[in-house]
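Let's study my pick:
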Amino acid sequence: MKIALVTGGSRGLGKDMAVQLARKGLAVVITYREREADAASVVASIKASGGQAAALAFDANDIPGIDGFVQRLQSLLRQTWSSEGFDFLITNAGMGATVPYPNVTEAIFDQFLNVHFKSVYFLTQKCLPLLRQGGGIVNISSGSTRFCVPGYSAYASMKGAVEILTKYQAKELGARGIRSNIVAPGPIETDFNNAAIRNNPNMKAALSQMSPLGRVGYADDIGSVVAFLCTDEAKWVNGQRIEVSGGINC
C-alpha cells in the first residue's frame, strides 16, 4: 500500500488531490489547520468510496511545530497502516491575499514566507527519514510566477522560491529514487483568497477570455495531474515545473 500526505487537504485543490490519489489506490493522509469537520468529511468520503484516509492538524505558519507534526504523522502511520514511512508528499497548504506591493508589511511578508516557503522547505526536510525509496514530492506553485498578477508580489515570490527548491530536491534526492516536481495552477475557481474568482463574475469572465479554452480551471483539473505524478506512469518525470492553466497568456 502506497501512502500520500497532502497538506491542506480539507478543501479546494487539496481536497480534490486527496480524492484523486485515493482513486489511484493510494492511502491518503490530509492535513487541516482549523477545518477539522471538513477534513473529517473528506476522510469519510474517501472511505465510503472504498479508499483509505486519515487526517492530522497542521499549521504551516507554525515552523517550530513541524517537529511535533512529524512525530504525530509517524505515530499515525504506525497505528493506521503498520508503516514506518510514506511514499508521496504533496505540499499544498497555503493562504491567499491580494496585497499591493506598497502595502505589504513585514508581518504579511513573514506570514507568506512561513506558509508558502519555509514550511515547505523544512517540513519536507524533516519528512525525509519517513519518505520511502522511490517515492516522490509534488510541490504546488502558481501561474503567477510566469505572468504578473497585481497584488501577488509576496505570494508569487515565495512560490518562485519553491520552484527553485524543487529542482534542488530533484538533484539531491535522486540517489534515493525520489522524484520532485512542481505543479503551477492558473486561475482556479475554488474558495482560495476568499473565493475571489467565484465571487466576482467580471473577474471570472475576464480570466476565462485569457485562456484559449475559454474558461477558468476547476479543482479536478489540478488534482488529476498531481495524482498522475504519484504513479508509475510518471516515473521518468523529475525536476519539472508543470503549469496547468489552460494555456492562459501562452
User: Anything to note?
Assistant: The chain has eight helices and seven strands. The chain has one domain: 3-191+219-242. The longest strand covers residues 131-140.
